[in-house]
Amino acid sequence: MPLRDEEGKTIGTFGITKDITESKQVREEIEALAKFPRENPNPVLRISKDGTVLYSNKASTPLLDTWGYKEGQPIPDKWQQLVQDTLDRGEGQHIEIECVDRVLTLFFSPIVESNYANVYALYITEPKRSEEALRKSEEQLRQAQKLESIGRLAGGVAHDFNNLLTTIIGYSELISMEQDLNDSTKEGVQEIKNSAKRAAELTKQLLAFSRKQVLQPQVIDLNRLITKLGKMLRRLIGEDVDLTTKLDSKPGHIKADPGQVEQVITNLVVNARDAMQEGGTITIETQGLYLDESYSQQHPEVKPGDYVLLAVSDTGHGMDEETQAQIFEPFFTTKEVGKGTGLGLSTVYGIVKQSGGYIYVYSEPDHGTTFKIYLPQLTGARKQQESVREKKGPMGGTETILLVEDEESLRKMAGKILDGYGYSVVEAKNGMEALEIITQGDRLKIDLLVTDVIMPKMGGKELAGKLTEEYPKLKVLYISGYTDNAIAHHGELDKGVSLLQKPFSTQSLAEKVREVLDES
């Protein structure tokens, strides 16, 4: 500023200087702090005790949407309570939440004197995803081991029941052949047969779950099979449910037992129908696809490769996680007593697994359910025509049959049936006794060995091996309800093996014996 004399003339200047370096630095720091929440890529919020959002940066929008926050209104009660608890305690706290497809850790920091809390969020997606993937893999492994154990138990139970049912069916049929039965007795015997056959269907489903069925795999065009089933499925589901298909034009071929695949589709469609009592839509879908390494990492049991997808979806009531964890277990059902056996989905599981495939369920309560089945795709496969053997000639004969079965009642019943058809029958209760009978005294001329597969001391496969070494032209028919990989692998009979599955009827035994004897 100018200095003047008494006459007003400028005689000098006066000035004051001040070092503002420090204050400038403080101002820049304040501006930087102000920019921090605004430019932060993670959510930053300031929320009052009454739930009012005092400040939120742009990155907070997805988080607020996840909370269900609406502008101009307090945040929802759940989150408001967290803010209040933080301020009342005067201590920070943190929680983890899912936001869209990522995982956040939220840190609540109290500013008690100002009656608000600062909320900072940190994304921890990748570590969390890795932990979640590991947890899911461990859970899938535990579930698979559990189902495997149940399967072994179910297979053993089915084996024992099949022996009993074969005896019941056989003797009831023999009784019904008697000429002097009155109508009441005939009716009672028929009821016994019908009940035994229904029980046989249950054991068949148990064997399907335990993956101990003998399959007859063929090359299948899945689209054609689904189209063929269409009319029957529509009759099953009724008028209140729509059935739609989305079939890939070229999904590829699979190798499986057509009858078993039909059962898989039918069981899933019926299950979907039952989930939609008030009507809805069932969609059957096929697709050829490649499951890569990343999919295999999420599902460790899956080998990368080409697959054909079969998916069945419904718009029904859906399932919670607890239900999903049990749906493939035998006899588990959410239906009323008398409305289902609980074997439909366990049968599906067993068939898919035995066919070399994988099955997964995706569902939420009130959002429907989708079952996805992945079956190995055959590359360059051609359709095979199924050959049907015509049954010719009479079922009886005069040949000598060695019948080996450890269940006495079943052995006697089968022997009585074969004797009735004119055969000469020699019985043995196990493999060791059969060898003794053959080798003692004058050697018997045996035309056919009919033997159970699983027996104490010596199984049927070992017995047949010893006898065919000495009698190369001996023909063999195995009878079993549970092969335990002795004569079949991955559900397919070993080459040249003939099998009659228990429980069997008198006619099926006679037909199969004659068929094996007539083979060249």
Report on this model:
42% of the residues lie in helices and 23% in strands. The protein is an alpha/beta fold. The chain folds into four domains: 28-123, PAS domain (Beta-Lactamase); 141-209; 218-376, Histidine kinase-like ATPase, C-terminal domain (Heat Shock Protein 90, 2-Layer Sandwich); 400-518, Rossmann fold, CATH 3.40.50. It has a five-stranded antiparallel beta sheet. A hairpin with a 4-residue loop joins strand 3 and strand 4 (53-56). The longest helix is centred in the N-terminal third of the chain and has 52 residues, at 125-176. The model is unreliable at 30-34 and 381-392 (pLDDT under 50).
Low-confidence stretches: 30-34, 381-392
Number of domains: 4
Question: What share of the residues lie within helices?
Answer: 40-55%
Structural class: alpha/beta
Would you give the CATH topology of the largest domain? Answer: Heat Shock Protein 90
* Extended strand count: 21
Number of helices: 14
What is the C-level CATH assignment of the largest domain? Answer: Alpha Beta
- Percent of sequence in beta strands: 15-25%
Strands in their spatial order, largest beta sheet: 4-3-7-6-5
Rg, Cα atoms, Å: 38 Å
| CATH architectural designation of the largest domain | 2-Layer Sandwich
Outline the biggest β-sheet.
5 strands, antiparallel
Kindly report the average pLDDT value. 79
According to CATH, the homologous superfamily of the largest domain is: Histidine kinase-like ATPase, C-terminal domain
